[in-house]
Design a protein that fits this description.
The complex is a heterodimer.
Chain A: E1 37-42, E2 47-52, H1 58-73, E3 82-85, E4 88-95, E5 98-105, H2 110-127, H3 133-138, H4 140-150, E6 151-152, E7 155-156, H5 161-173
Antiparallel strand pairs in A: 1-2, 1-5, 3-4, 4-5, 6-7
Chain B: H1 9-17, H2 22-41, H3 45-60, H4 69-77, H5 81-94, H6 105-113, H7 118-131, H8 134-148, H9 153-169, H10 190-206, H11 208-216, H12 220-233, E1 241-242, E2 245-246, H13 248-262, H14 266-282, H15 288-303, H16 308-322, H17 327-340, H18 345-349, H19 352-357, H20 364-377, H21 383-396, H22 399-416, H23 420-434, H24 442-452, H25 457-470, H26 475-494, H27 507-519, H28 525-541, H29 546-555, H30 562-576, H31 579-585, E3 593-594, E4 603-604, E5 669-671, E6 712-717, E7 720-728, E8 735-744, E9 750-759, E10 764-767, E11 783-790, E12 799-807, E13 810-818
Antiparallel strand pairs in B: 1-2, 3-4, 5-9, 6-7, 7-8, 8-11, 9-12, 10-11, 12-13
Helix pairs in contact in B: 1-2, 2-3, 3-5, 4-5, 5-7, 6-7, 6-8, 7-9, 8-9, 9-10, 10-11, 10-13, 12-13, 12-14, 13-14, 13-15, 14-15, 14-16, 15-16, 15-17, 16-17, 17-20, 21-22, 21-23, 22-23, 23-25, 24-26, 25-26, 26-27, 26-28, 27-28, 28-29, 28-30, 29-30
Classes of the chains: A alpha+beta, B alpha+beta.
């Protein structure tokens, strides 16, 4: 009997559905309520940050990045900030020329994640003193640090901006 | 000779940004990569960090960086914090669990988890929590558990989420973290509370035992209620305040955990009733934050066993959301209402007019949900008003909606039509405004409907005639019209119509329009078939134009289209040799009885046809399209038995095609070969509404074929090869037709061959019957079978197939996945 799923298919089992319609399950984790990835892209499609909380091949990652870019850039103010994408959902917000995208499960609370994005952007703003895209480019490893202070294992970790900023300054002093 | 110091990261970034073309950038990157590689070879500790950082930057731009993997490991092992930090970042970006060197990190991480500096411990926890493999998690779970109990809140937070990851990877380890959770909720620190709630949520969701344990033994619900209450009542707390609300993220997570605890449990649900009501009424709604909390509250209320007053409160909140200016909130409300409309129908009805207004929204996903909700809310009382709105919507909406909307309107009309006239008018309206988007299966359903409204025949045929007079390009409309004219043409020319002013039309005019349809380039093969048959039927209903009809029919006897040719030849034969039977054969259709009104329609023919025909068993239509339903030795004119019928092509309920018997792949959207397949020859089957002489050729599958899609070999093993060829329709691009051909290169036949397929839930599948069940040896023949796949969301096509057959005396069975579908088959 061929084993049920391979790692290559990381489409999650949807929470609440007892009949598993799609047999391509990643047996390593039942991905209930989790952030799949966080992306920051500019309008041209250049990735400024890509944080993955799920296993993907390099070419799968590339494809996802391109698809997200395609889906998100055609939307304007008339559209909602939520897009159904494959079997997931993308929650995004545009700040100046950058798109901040979080990919979550379809059953997650959209509005809460929208707040999480805003929280994250405000921290970046504080940390880099009126952040602009170039800050994210030249300090890309610091941006990852910010992400890791606020999110872990695909969940929101720390939401207090003051606390996060304090930690970031501490880490900076160690360099 | 010492190499010059590698350039700094900032320098590199600046340089790369000056590149004006992709080629220039690539050149710079290659040059730098070469420099980095030589630097790595020198094993120089000083610059390793800088080099890896540069490598990571280039990786982010999309260039390969795997040669840096080992260097990341070396950085992690270093004592300097800056090295570790870049090393771990590199590990997270480059060293996922598929890489061979992934496991080498384990020891380093273990040491770092016990490091004296909390920031190093934090780095290790973070890395483990983001991408640790199962083996790594197993090895290090103990360390994580220790850190969960530490007094350092910075580490506890990270450890809690790391534990979540460990549990996800290795569920058996959940037990191990249980003791550490005892006092998690007694924390004052919000961050720790937050992550603890996440951890508890994960445990409760994964294991029903854990859930029960936390409910009863730990009394989790009262604790959570207390915390939530404190959050709401407490004053301004600057650290976690967002727009005046105290730690909304924590509130949301607590609500979610409450939802899991309260689900299906009366006691827990009761204990949380008050707090839910409190949150629902006291939360400030002017900003998105408040609404996020309210939304989570609503979700919780609807999911637990709440009392009815609370549920009404929840639905009213959703109703208020619908009026909100923020489209995000409207969207979210519509999504939730859709989920609850079945259970709380009356409460949702109260917001019907707001929902209908959302049909005019600008956002496509809002419109879609509003449409689905509207259909769910239609009932006998509001059908007229709702239909007006829905028809207006059908007129003005985007093409992607039209098919679904049309189908929905037909269904609603069928269920709740206040009068037959209204029903026919509604159908006409749909056919004329969105006629080309109507689904294939709607045509037979409509025809059946019309047949059953006996008193409306004259009115119907008159309206249809007028409709196609101006424009005969919309195929479904033309098909229905052609059929009706064929049936009721006599009423048309006789000018009997009670419902409206009868029109004056002559037999010749009617034949003119039918002939135009036959000739027109816009008409598909199917439509032409309808038209020809209609013309033939008129030969018994019209009086003065029989010769004209004979002439038309004989012309098509030499048509290139095999379908038409066959029909014409047989009709010709009717004229010549069997003229005495003609009027009996072309008699008016009897009223068809519908066995079920919803879902797949089973049609039982109540009047047996006349005597067995001297026209022998019609050969199944040749040509590229195989026949449609179960078995098509449609020996219509033979056999007067009333035979129960295989249900017609259901687009919404595929399980009916005998799929229940074939419960192989579990509860998957599976359609196997219908169970009645084995005995085709003996039982005359009528699958579509019986068009007397149309039965010869059941509907070919496609109106227009989009050619040029490459075929694929889906399976090739043990001498059995299965190839897929694709066809798509231009008029209905969400349907893909796959023709499979199974061939056998071994020296023995494969018998009792059965092919089954399963697809993801967003698709629908229809499997038609195979050409045979034997795959002959030495590739001397093939089994062909047709699969129709409906893919409305244009998602990537994937399929699992199961093959069973007998070969060399033993039963063989195999499962395979097909995922090499060419993009043109589903995009």
């Amino acid at each position: 009997m061929i084993p049920l799923g391979t790692n290559a298919y990381t489409t999650p089992v949807r929470a609440g559905h007892c009949a598993t319609p799609l047999v391509f399950i990643d047996l390593c984790s039942s991905l209930l309520r989790e952030i799949r990835f966080i992306l920051i892209q500019n309008r041209a499609g250049k990735t400024r940050l890509a944080k993955w909380y799920m296993q993907f091949d390099d070419d799968e990652k590339q494809k996802l990045i391109e698809e997200v870019h395609a889906v998100v850039t055609v939307r304007d103010a008339k559209h909602t900030n939520f897009v159904e994408f494959r079997n997931f959902k993308i929650i995004y917000r545009r700040y100046a020329g950058l798109y901040f995208c979080i990919c979550v499960d379809v059953n997650d609370n959209n509005l809460a994640y929208l707040e999480a994005i805003h929280n994250f952007v405000e921290v970046l703003n504080e940390y880099f003193h009126n952040v602009c895209e170039l800050d994210l480019v030249f300090n890309f490893y610091k941006v990852y640090t910010v992400v890791d202070e606020m999110f872990l294992a695909g969940e929101i970790r720390e939401t207090s901006q003051t606390k996060v900023l304090k930690q970031l300054l501490m880490l900076q002093s160690l360099e | 000779m010492r190499m010059p110091a590698p350039i700094r990261l900032r320098e590199l970034i600046r340089t790369i940004r000056t590149a004006r073309t992709q080629a220039e950038e690539r050149e710079m990157i290659q040059k730098e990569c070469a420099a980095i590689r030589s630097s790595f070879r020198e094993e120089d500790n000083t610059y390793r960090c800088r080099n890896v950082a540069k490598l990571l930057y280039m990786h982010m731009l999309g260039y390969p960086a795997h040669f840096g993997q080992l260097e990341c490991l070396k950085l992690i092992a270093s004592q300097k914090f800056t090295d570790k930090r870049i090393g771990y970042l590199g590990a997270m970006l480059l060293l996922d669990e598929r890489q061979d060197v992934h496991l080498l990190m384990t020891n380093c991480i273990k040491n770092d988890l016990n490091h004296s500096t909390q920031y190093v411990q934090g780095l290790a926890l973070c890395t483990l929590g983001c991408m640790g493999s199962s083996e790594m998690c197993r090895d290090l779970a103990g360390e994580v558990e220790k850190l969960l109990k530490t007094s350092n809140s910075y580490l506890r937070k990270k450890a809690a989420l790391c534990a979540v990851h460990v549990i996800r990877k290795v569920p058996e380890l959940m037990e191990m973290f249980l003791p550490a959770t005892k006092n998690l909720l007694n924390e004052k620190n919000h961050g720790v509370l937050h992550t603890s709630v996440v951890l508890l949520t994960e445990m409760c969701e994964r294991s029903p035992d854990m859930l029960a344990h936390f409910r009863k033994n730990e009394k989790l619900v009262p604790q959570l209620v207390r915390i939530l209450k404190n959050l709401i009542m407490s004053g301004y707390s600057p650290e976690h305040d967002v727009s005046g609300i105290s730690d909304p993220f924590l509130q949301v997570r607590i609500l979610r955990l409450l939802r899991i605890l309260g689900r299906n449990d009366d006691d827990s649900s009761e204990a949380m009733n008050d707090i839910l009501a409190q949150v629902a009424t006291n939360t400030e709604t002017s900003k998105n934050v408040g609404n996020a909390i309210l939304y989570e509250t609503v979700l919780t209320i609807m999911d637990i066993k709440s009392e009815s007053g609370l549920r009404v409160l929840a639905i009213n909140i959703l109703g208020r959301f619908l009026l909100n200016n923020d489209k995000n909130i409207r969207y979210v409300a519509l999504t939730s209402l859709l989920k609850t409309v079945q259970t709380d129908h009356n409460a949702v009805q109260r917001h019907r007019s707001t929902i209908v207004d959302c049909l005019k929204d600008l956002d496509v996903s809002i419109k879609r949900r509003a449409m689905e909700l509207s259909f769910a809310l239609v009932n006998g009382n509001n059908i007229r008003g709702m239909m007006k709105e829905l028809l207006y919507f059908l007129d003005s909406c985007e093409p992607e909606f039209k098919a679904d909307c049309a189908s929905g309107i037909f269904l609603a009309a069928e269920k709740y039509a206040p009068s037959k006239r209204w029903h026919i008018d509604t159908i006409m309206r749909v056919l004329t405004t969105a006629g080309s988007y109507v689904r294939d299966d709607a045509v037979p359903n409509l025809i059946q409907l019309i047949t059953n409204s006996v008193e409306m025949h004259a009115y119907t045929v008159q309206r249809l005639y007028k409709a196609i007079l101006g424009d005969y390009s919309q195929q479904p409309l033309v098909q229905v019209a052609a059929w009706c004219i064929g049936e009721y043409g006599d009423l048309l020319v006789s000018g009997q119509c009670e419902e409206e002013e009868p029109i004056q039309v002559t037999e010749d005019e009617v034949l003119d329009i039918l002939e135009s349809v036959l000739i027109s380039n816009m008409s598909t093969s199917v439509t032409r078939g309808y038209a020809l048959t209609a013309i033939m039927k008129l030969s018994t209903r019209f009086t003065c134009t029989v010769n004209r009809i004979k002439k038309v029919v004989s012309i098509y006897g030499s048509s290139i289209d095999v379908e038409l040719q066959q029909r014409a030849v047989e009709y010709n034969a009717l004229f010549k040799k069997y003229d005495h039977m003609r009027s009996a054969l072309l008699e008016r259709m009897p009223v068809m009885e519908k066995v079920t009104t919803n879902g797949p329609t089973e049609i039982v023919q109540t009047n047996g046809e006349t005597e067995p025909a001297p026209l022998e068993t019609k050969p199944p239509p040749s040509g590229p399209q195989p026949t449609s339903q179960a078995n098509d030795l449609l020996d219509l004119l033979g056999g007067n038995d009333i035979t129960p019928v295989i249900p017609t092509a259901p687009t919404s309920k595929p399980a009916s095609a005998g799929g229940e018997l074939l419960d192989l792949l579990g509860d998957i959207n599976l359609t196997g070969a219908p169970a009645a397949a084995p005995a085709p020859a003996s039982v005359p089957q009528i699958s579509q509404p019986p068009f007397l002489l149309d039965g010869l050729s059941s509907q070919p599958l496609f109106n227009d074929i989009a050619t040029g899609i490459p075929s694929i070999t889906a399976y090739s093993k043990n001498g059995l090869k299965i190839e897929f060829t694709f066809e798509r329709s231009n008029t209905n691009p969400s349907v893909t037709v796959i023709t499979i051909q199974a061939s056998n290169s071994t020296e023995l036949d494969m018998t009792d061959f059965v092919f089954q397929a399963a697809v993801p839930k967003t698709f629908q599948l229809q499997l038609l019957s195979p050409s045979s069940s034997i795959v002959p040896a030495f590739n001397t023949g093939t089994i062909t079978q047709v699969i129709k796949v409906l893919n409305p969301q244009k998602q990537q096509l994937r399929m699992r197939i199961k093959l069973t057959y007998n070969h060399k005396g033993s039963a063989m069975q195999d499962l395979a996945e097909v995922n090499n579908f060419p993009p043109q088959s589903w995009q």
